[in-house]
Amino acid sequence: MQQTINDIMQLLPHRYPFLLIDRVLEINEDATEARVLKNVTANEPQFTGHFPEMPVMPGVLIVEAMAQACAVLVMARLSEEERKKKALFYFAGIDGVRFKRIVQPGDQLIFECRYIKDRANICWCEARALVDGNVVCEAKSLMSARKVIEE
């Protein structure tokens, strides 16, 4: 089930410059795994200061993009009725973050997310970010469903 940026914007409240994923490549049938893409481009605002001579994507933004990819997976687990209510998931925590290499403009990040479990409005996911098949970051994230956006 591929989803475009317009589909993602229906699921997540983030907008430019903080919507950090571009396309959902795949969500498996039982919504336990997803692959999500982010194109890293030189015109993103963080590269004007991080670092002008050698642009490097800040680790915190890689982690945020990873959390957004996990949020899309968690949203896919909801019923159609729950999605219509505009459930909002907050980033509640991150464990075991490891960075393996830098990410630069021109790279294409692929996030591989895996649902672990949920309990009492908290959902756990594992994720890793890859560039050209090489792991650049991995972590476990927690999402908390705290609010429904009123229309």
Detailed description of the structure:
- Helices cover 20% and strands 41% of the residues.
- The protein is of the alpha+beta class and 151 residues long.
- It has one domain: Thiol Ester Dehydrase, Chain A (Roll), CATH 3.10.129.10.
- A six-stranded antiparallel beta sheet has the order 1-2-4-5-6-3.
- It is globular, with a radius of gyration of 15 Å.
- The two termini are 27 Å apart.
- The model has no long low-confidence stretch (mean pLDDT 92).
Descriptive tags:
41% strand; 3 helices; 6-stranded antiparallel sheet; Thiol Ester Dehydrase, Chain A; 151 residues; alpha+beta
Summarize this, please?
The chain is an alpha+beta fold and 151 residues long.
Q: Based on the structure given, which CATH architecture is correct?
A: Roll
Shape: globular
Following the backbone from N to C, one meets helices and strands in this order, namely HEEHHEEEE
The parts where pLDDT drops under 50 for at least 5 residues are none
**CATH topology descriptor:** Thiol Ester Dehydrase, Chain A
CATH class (first level) name: Alpha Beta
Biggest sheet details: 6 strands, antiparallel
Write the layout of secondary structure elements.
Elements: H1 5-11, E1 23-27, E2 33-39, H2 59-76, H3 80-84, E3 87-99, E4 108-119, E5 122-131, E6 134-148
Antiparallel strand pairs: 1-2, 2-4, 3-6, 4-5, 5-6
